[in-house]
């Protein structure tokens, strides 16, 4: 009889990082930050506050507010990003990077997503900033969707690659770029074809849901995020990229909390709140693909390598047991925030 090793029930890995996270501000920040700090060592924090985090001084002040919102004794390092506008000052960006205040710049095409109206309309206007970033090795994080209303919402990432990303790669080839929350086979293929200076983050939810989850049996606002989930073949391409070990793909949860009141209305906000359940969900996804051993590359090694940071020395352990039910929502002083429901039972838990 062929010998089959028993399925593992414990998994120890270097403490993961989250390379794309929304922590918000004020009451929401205080409510959600502990959930990321519990499971992750560091996170690239998105700057799409109202008003956005544009300058080094604003990033530094926001970092102080995040640190103040962490539980006593938490060892969690917020890595800050600057929101790129058409009047961003290249000198301020360079200073923020070289002094360690900001790790990356975030480009939102104006109008593409939550709080992106102050973003970029014309890439030529930010060319001096991008060239300076290329010189100093500062990464650019992209929300990769075109905003052209003529382009079908499910095609906006693919159109972005053709219309924006390819020309940008040609014009500023030394710029290090992260295609954030990649959702398509097209995105995966593009990144995989780039020999250098290019990576992509993959979210928790895009590994789990396809577009049916948003609409099957009724409209389900808690599965609505941007970029919107695509068809099943794209989800499979994302899983393949995540489990491949290819160092260009790493975890960026895009955990994006909105109150239920903001989600459940005629024009509800985009975003899934995944921080409290990401690691158990990822363990299920990697186990189902029989690649549990690669979870550490995806969640703990590939990201720091791209950002030029050492991987975390601390370890965490996940254990597998009877299915458990995460809380349906967390309370905040602004009202409850629904926790992402993967739609399958969770057997894995982070120990401690
Ligand atoms: N992903 C989302 O659906 N929403 C994000 C914005 C973003 O990452 O595009 C948010 O800030 O709510
Ligand atoms: Zn985005
Ligand atoms: Zn995001």
From TrEMBL:
Cofactor list: Zn(2+)
The EC number(s) this enzyme carries: 3.5.2.3
Where are residues bearing N6-carboxylysine located in the sequence?
Answer: 106
Chemical reaction(s) catalysed: (S)-dihydroorotate + H2O = N-carbamoyl-L-aspartate + H(+)
Pathway(s) annotated for this protein in UniProt: Pyrimidine metabolism; UMP biosynthesis via de novo pathway; (S)-dihydroorotate from bicarbonate: step 3/3
Q: Which domain of life is it from?
A: Bacteria
Protein purpose: Catalyzes the reversible cyclization of carbamoyl aspartate to dihydroorotate.
Q: Which NCBIfam families does the record match to this protein?
A: pyrC_dimer
- Would you identify the family this protein belongs to, as annotated? Belongs to the metallo-dependent hydrolases superfamily. DHOase family. Class II DHOase subfamily.
Name of the protein this chain belongs to: Dihydroorotase
